[in-house]
Amino acid sequence: MLFWRHGFEGVSIAQLTQALGIAPASLYSAFGSKANLYQEALERYLQRVRVRATYALETDRPIKETVRELLTSAVLSVTDETGIRGCMISLSMLFHAPDNAALADHVESLRQQWLQRIASRLQRAINAGELPGSPGAEDWACYLVSLMQGMGIQARDGASRERLMNVAHLGFITMFGPMEVSFQHAPY
Q: How far apart are CA 14 and CA 25, in angstroms?
């Protein structure tokens, strides 16, 4: 929660040891470094949010249903009342000290992997004739990721789940045109 709320750079060893209820030596013994603990926290966060979104991308349902579910799961994730508002992957390592460049590169690679997974699913839809070939899968994936990251920032700034569901609906309309589709009730 500390890394999610304040980012890697914004959390001190003292804050971590206090939150964990351990001495600094125990933290280093267990994790080796603050960076290793952060990577474990990232992995735990990914396990938390990956289920809904991965399911959406790995099915062969029509692309309209997949995109609706992807956008809906993004809104639910960034407004989850049991966590910090916003996306840890998008927000926690945007700025970093030069010494933490390798860690920042790792987080960037996570974002790029997500972009590529979405592009891969959209390419399958293009190949199946569900989407036109122009713009290409990479451009649509960049659009969707930008939309989801923007919703994460809006959530951090206090936007309601309802407002972000409306934004998700607008994103859907941008891709597929106006149609009756609900973004208020998730299938989970």
A: 11
What does the alpha-carbon distance between residue 37 and residue 25 come to, in Å, rounded to a whole number?
Answer: 13
Domain count, the chain: 1
What is d(CA 146, CA 144) in angstroms, rounded to the nearest whole number? 5
Query: What sign for the dihedral angle of Cα 182, 111, 96, 42?
Result: positive
Q: Is there a contact between 84 and 1 (Cβ–Cβ < 8 Å)?
A: yes
Q: In what helix (H) or strand (E) does residue 120 lie, and over which residues does it extend?
A: helix 101-127
Measuring CA to CA, which residue among 50, 51, 46 is closest to residue 4? Answer: 46
Q: Which domain holds residue 159?
A: 49-176
- Please count the CA atoms within 13 angstroms of the CA of 27 that sit on its side-chain side: 20
CATH code, 61: 1.10.357.10
What is the residue-averaged pLDDT of the chain? 89
pLDDT in tens, 87-125: 888 888 888 888 989 999 999 999 999 999 999 999 999
pTM: 0.86
